[in-house]
From TrEMBL:
Protein role: Allows the formation of correctly charged Gln-tRNA(Gln) through the transamidation of misacylated Glu-tRNA(Gln) in organisms which lack glutaminyl-tRNA synthetase. The reaction takes place in the presence of glutamine and ATP through an activated gamma-phospho-Glu-tRNA(Gln).
Keyword Amino-acid biosynthesis: no
UniProt keywords, alphabetically: ATP-binding, Ligase, Nucleotide-binding, Protein biosynthesis
EC number: 6.3.5.7
Taxonomic source organism: Deinococcus xinjiangensis
Protein name, per record: Glutamyl-tRNA(Gln) amidotransferase subunit A
Protein's gene: gatA
Active-site annotation: K54, S129, S153
Subunit structure: Heterotrimer of A, B and C subunits.
Length: 449
């Protein structure tokens, strides 16, 4: 109860950051249940740990709005597997984090509840789409949080807010109860302030779930640090990620490479030429999947309904008024790319690029244990700076989307700062591992601390 009250106090004090969409009304009761379980002799790995989860993760009795007007009054009738595992391990879900509408964005500006502010500079974005979850940890509202990552939405806000953010291997964490954006890319991932906290969380949430057929059997065994430290680790810097970075990002990459070498790792460079098509391929896969997934919001079963004179008009008005501009744009582009006559030119072409990219990553892992890029080419940008230009916003994902296309795990590690207009802004480095080697990422992050 003390931990919960302390988190609630911090949330109240940081109200201006707009990091949360709602509080969990059932939290006090859940904290009491944890106290009872501990008193009865149970050993719980996360006993009493307050935690915030992104608002696209269902938790019974909480509103799950996905940052959208269309789900503004939707209350979850069930709990997502990842959230359930946290609760079973003793964690108390305190609230739901703000996010870009339906996780579509890189800045947490498109939420129906308004933008979340970056605690390092309140005139700047926290990144997105899991900006509220990143800010929750960066501002110390809770020690850990959950987000979701379809094309970078855990890693990029982690980088822009100076915390750790892990996108697990596709299938490592159950997606049951995560509201779908692009199902073949979506993964739930943790934010934390240390590799040890990441390991604690992953050991709880990872593993097979009979309710998600794409979830994997691999037993979780995460630890911060590896037996031999970083000695002998082969790190490949991806050449395509070296262009277009700010001076501070470049300097932080150089510093990271020096630290790796000093710890006994070997460092080389590797080229993945197909990466130049990654953003185009990503959006031509994510948007079609989104257009299908979001067809269910027609005002008939879920969320808000705007009534019209007949069924068609009701559905049209509901979607017109319920979805924001970016979501509408993506539904239209996605529908277009899937339609007869365009499918081969766009969607099917993008799927071929996806295959080639995965092959290039696999080839690179023949030479290197992990690959390295900056998580974002720049630190946090100004609120409003990219909202008028969707393509500029999409370009913010240049270093992250390919990892989801290939299904790989990747971890953003807080690695340095860049001073902009007299303010220190955090910078993250992204380590990428072969599928199911998520543990290696958390281990090496521990070695780097
Ligand atoms: N910014 C990317 C997008 O808008 C990634 C979002 C995400 O990972 N959910 O699709």
């Amino acid at each position: 109860q003390d931990l919960l009250n302390s988190a609630l106090g911090r949330i109240e004090a940081a109200h201006d950051l707009n990091a949360l969409i709602s509080l969990n009304e059932g939290a006090a009761e859940q904290a009491q249940q944890v106290e009872n379980r501990v008193a009865a002799g149970e050993t719980l790995p996360l006993a009493g740990v307050p935690i915030i989860v992104k608002d696209n993760i269902n938790v019974t009795g909480t509103r799950t709005t996905c940052g959208s007007r269309i789900l503004g009054n939707y209350v979850s009738p069930y709990t997502a597997t990842a959230a359930q595992r946290l609760q079973d391990a003793g964690a108390v879900i305190v609230g739901k984090a703000n996010m870009d509408e339906f996780a579509m964005g890189s800045s947490t500006e498109s939420s129906a509840q308004g933008p979340t502010l970056n605690p390092w500079d309140k005139g700047r974005v926290p990144g997105g789409s899991s900006g509220g979850s990143a800010v929750a940890v960066a501002a110390g509202l809770t020690p850990v949080s959950l987000g979701s990552d379809t094309g970078g939405s855990v890693r990029q806000p982690a980088a822009l807010c100076g915390v750790y953010g892990l996108k697990p291997t596709y299938g490592r964490v159950s997606r049951y109860g995560l509201v779908a954006y692009a199902s073949s890319l979506d993964q739930i991932g943790p934010f934390a302030r240390s590799a040890e906290d990441l390991a604690l969380l992953m050991n709880v949430i990872a593993g097979h779930d009979p309710r998600d057929a794409t979830s994997l059997e691999a037993p979780p065994k995460f630890a911060a640090g590896t037996p031999d430290g970083l000695r002998g680790l082969r790190v490949g810097v991806i050449r395509e990620s070296l262009a277009g970075n700010t001076a501070g990002v470049q300097r932080t990459l150089d510093d990271t490479l020096s630290a790796l070498k000093a710890a006994g790792a070997s460092v080389g460079e590797v080229s993945l030429p197909e990466l130049k098509y990654a953003i185009a391929a990503y959006y031509l896969i994510a948007m079609p999947e989104a257009s299908s997934n979001l067809a269910r919001y027609d005002g008939m079963v879920y969320g808000q309904r705007v009534s019209g004179s007949d069924l068609m008009e009701s559905m049209t008005l509901t979607r017109e008024q319920g979805f924001g501009r970016e979501v509408q744009r993506r539904i239209m582009i996605g529908t277009y790319a899937l339609s007869s006559g365009y499918y081969d030119a766009y969607y099917s072409k993008a799927m071929k690029v996806r295959r080639l990219l995965a092959d290039e990553f696999n080839a690179a892992f023949g030479q290197y244990d992990v690959l390295l890029t900056p998580t974002s080419p720049f630190p946090a940008f100004r609120t409003g700076e990219k909202t008028a230009d969707p393509l500029a916003m999409y370009a913010a994902d240049v270093d992250t989307v390919a990892i989801n296309l290939a299904g790989l795990p990747a971890l953003s590690v807080p690695a340095g700062f860049e001073e902009v207009d007299g303010v220190k802004l955090p910078i993250g480095m992204q380590f990428i591992a072969p599928a199911l080697k998520d543990e290696l990422l958390v281990g090496l992050a521990g070695g780097l601390e």
